[in-house]
Amino acid sequence: MKVLITGIAGAHAQLVALRLVDNGHEVIGIDVRPWQGAPRGVTIFQTDVRKRPAADVFRVHRPDVVIHMATVTHFNASAEQRYRVNLRGTQAVFRYCDEFGVKKAVFVGRHTIYGAAADAPLYRNEDEPPLAVSTFPELADLVAADLYASRALWSCKNMRTVVLRLVYALGPSGRGTLASFLAGPRVPMAMGFDPLFHVMHEDDAAKAIVLAAESEIAGVFNIAGPPPVPLSVLCRATHRTAVPLPESVLKRALGRFGLPRLPPGAIAHLKHPVVVDNAAFVEATGYDYGYDEHQTMASFCDANILREDRGL
Amino acid sequence: MWRRVISDEVRERIERLDLPFNRWGLDPYGISKDHLGLFLTVLGQAHKHYFRVRTRGIENVPGTGPAMLVSNHSGGLPTDGGMIVASIFFDREPPRLAHGMVEKFAQSWPFMGPWFSRVGQLPGLPEHAKRLLLDGRLLMVFPEGARGTGKLYRDRYQLERFGTGFMRIALETGVPIVPIAFIGGEEAIPTIYHAKYLAKLANAPYFPITPYILPVPLPVNCEVLYGAPMHFEGTGNEPDHVIDGYVAQVKARVEELIAEGRGAGVNHEAEAS
């Protein structure tokens, strides 16, 4: 089948593209960034998903399946830029999907939209509301994009829609939200708290996305791999130094002293866990992860040492 | 560091727990062998030497599979919860870990909240209760809730209103209920007054004041009585009056056990004198 991936130049989207090519699918991609060394069988259109040329890709190539991965998760981008890409971009992609007869749309969202709170259940299933709107207001654009994509489940009658909520993907690419958080040698922690972090290997994440695209499922699904690990263990396993700071100091220290820059809302995620239950996806597709928590953290750590050796 | 404090007995018993620990000594709920070791070493000292807890009917706690342990709640601090966890860990062969349902406010406290989570005492949410039971774990429930711990000394062993949520969950998950009476908790922290201002400051529902001011438990001999498992048939969707009837049966059984335990307690004191 013909699969269109938006945001294909992203590290995790590339893994999805490679897997699809391996499985014998024709892959086309849209991204504002180039993908140097894209394999044979992948056609890239360098444009913004919200711009006219993107609509033409849908119009001319008529993909069967669209995997929407063009979202910004890092906070180096301004709030307006995140809103434009995450919400307006998602809106545009789903409009094209509906208009140009796409049979299946897969939205790749994040588990962080469930939000971290002291009184939230440890394992969230798909019925849980997105608390992040209040606990982590800076994620509102991703919450809105997720809910907008879910809307297609009932409004786009001729299309199967799958909304995936993936836990943090970590791996040799060293890219992604959690990888940026762990990029430096020191990792901030909220003193007196050690939340569970739900992490999966990036290959397992790609495997789940491809499975969602190839199978007949529709609906909202959490995607996770091995059981979660406390942030302290994550730091230890990736050879980072955890720096526990009282909450009042932590707010001011973020972005300074070699600590990652995070918005104030992120503090909730350093205090309480966001862990998901992926039973629904496992039951629907028979999905199983390949890398346990130890292998996942080690793969990120080993690749990171290599990158540091090369001075990258 | 503090790993050295963990007693050999506790270490050996933790290895025999039926929990799926990974190579980091963590289970899927974030329960950690190290934290559990320290927690149970401390509880073990209190259980054996401070409260000298006597256990009766421990064979009523199933060796495998899920069960809901339903107990009376004592005033002041939840010494009862800690001692029931200790009694199931130390007095039972093989040991098991009872999961308590901690008041939600404790989760927002630094240090305290994560410690509760690392030793399997999760916030009291129905989602947690169901998940743990469906996972085949032992769930410890105090249907009196904060009403129970907020009891004053003059009301000791008078059961407060039982919540009904536990019964619906037991029916839905089809697990047996093991009634429990905990004797001694009321005398350990004789609460005579609630300091509302301090409670507000700590973001807690109450702050107990004892005749000696601080809510520090006294070394009172305690006893845990486990009754025979009770089985109820249903889906959890029964009307309130049906559920109320089942809850009343459990409450009556806990009351009987309390009477049994207190009667026996008087005899012990008489024997001792």
From TrEMBL, chain A:
Cleaved signal peptide residues: none
InterPro entries from the UniProt entry: Epimerase_deHydtase, Lipid_A_modif_metabolic_enz, NAD(P)-bd_dom_sf
Domain NAD-dependent epimerase/dehydratase: 3-224
Pfam family, one: Epimerase
The name this protein goes by in its record: NAD-dependent epimerase/dehydratase domain-containing protein
Upper taxonomic lineage: Bacteria, Pseudomonadati, Myxococcota, Polyangia, Nannocystales
Automatic annotation (TrEMBL), chain B:
Domain of life per record: Bacteria
Cellular component terms per the entry's GO annotation: membrane
InterPro entries with a match to the protein in the record: Plipid/glycerol_acylTrfase
UniProt key word Transmembrane: no
GO molecular function, one term: acyltransferase activity
Keywords on record: Acyltransferase, Transferase
Endoplasmic reticulum found in the keyword field: no
Stretches assigned to the Phospholipid/glycerol acyltransferase domain: 67-185
Pfam family, one: Acyltransferase
PANTHER family in UniProt: MONOACYLGLYCEROL_DIACYLGLYCEROL O-ACYLTRANSFERASE, TRANSMEMBRANE PROTEIN 68
Name used for this protein in its record: 2-acyl-glycerophospho-ethanolamine acyltransferase
Source organism of this protein record: Enhygromyxa salina
